[in-house]
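Hey L., structure's done. Input below.
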Amino acid sequence: MAKSSSSIRIRVVIGSLDVGGTETHLVRLLPDLAAEGFIISVLTLTHKGHLADDLECENITVYAPPRIIRILQRTPLLSRLTAPIGTLVYLSYIFMRKSADISCFYLPSSYYLGMLAHMVTGDKSRTIMFRRSLNDYQRGRFLIKLYERWLHEKVDMIVGNSKAVVEQLITAENVVPDKLRLIYNGVDLSDLHSNGNKHVSVREELQIDDNILVMTIVANLIPYKGHMDLILALSSFDKNQLIPWKLLVVGDGLEARSDLVSLVNSHNLEEHIYWLGLRRDISKIYSETDIGLLVSHQESFSNAIIEGMAAGVPMIVTNVGGNKEAVVHEQCGLVIEPHNPEQIASAIARLSNDKVLRESYGKNARARVHEKFSSAQTLAEYLGLFGSDNNII
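Output:
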């Protein structure tokens, strides 16, 4: 007999709950699943992270390794061997003490160690790996590639968050299609509307006049996110080519930021660019954005894109991963090739000088999110995934 949701225990394994796309996705999703009656716990591999409080406030238990293991993880000479063993012992202990019906593994490290803990403890839960990126991280790592393909044979199901990810799992990693599912990320549309009522607007906070074109990129400061390409594109404009503009850069990454700031300064763009760091009010920022940007070199399916679309922002994105599955070219925005500052500049010029086109694309973008990428739609897909028709329970 299939279990009802009120008796299904879901164990989620992830590196940490620091701010990131996957982590934000879980903070949106897991309380909704808990409200449906699922009993949920989260096991982090390193530390709880900044977003853990959001889940614990919803009575979702979040575990982290004991202090001695966290010390091992931070010790350079020990972190490569001893720390993974210690982390595996911690996971195995929790697996044996706190049983579950379903174990969900998010991001590679949790898959590698979580599945191993599942096997060595004889854990009886059904297992699901959630692939949240293309497999570029396997490049040049032959043993990792072999180990992951071996795990693919052992895991019960694999869920990708874009067609690009699912197709790659079939063609490049030989996963049988019957084991695969596709579930897109979703945006909480009610949160979007509530954030539009803040007393102090982003333009007021940053002292940006209403006649200034505001562009926003939401992406951690990692080289493959393409920030350098964007800065080079913006440096190619002379004063007469664009209406007055500002760029809001939302994301973390102190090491990469210093290089980006140097590039900005070398092109005398410092007065145009605001480095906002980590922000929790993304929908508020997008509500006053004229053009959204994501010019990454690799991607799976970006929360930042659909958050911008939900706010009615026309998006300029690169043709990598699932970006074009979200942004329909010349309907919701513009899809350009990666590693190409010239195409970025051309797309910005086209949208910046045509307010009617921006509004048309933004309207279409909002409608597309309501139709395909709402959190309600994502929740329905997860409920179907955990249902008896998929033989997970």
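The two ends are 9 Å apart (CA to CA). The CA atoms of residues 231 and 274 lie 12 Å apart.

-- N.
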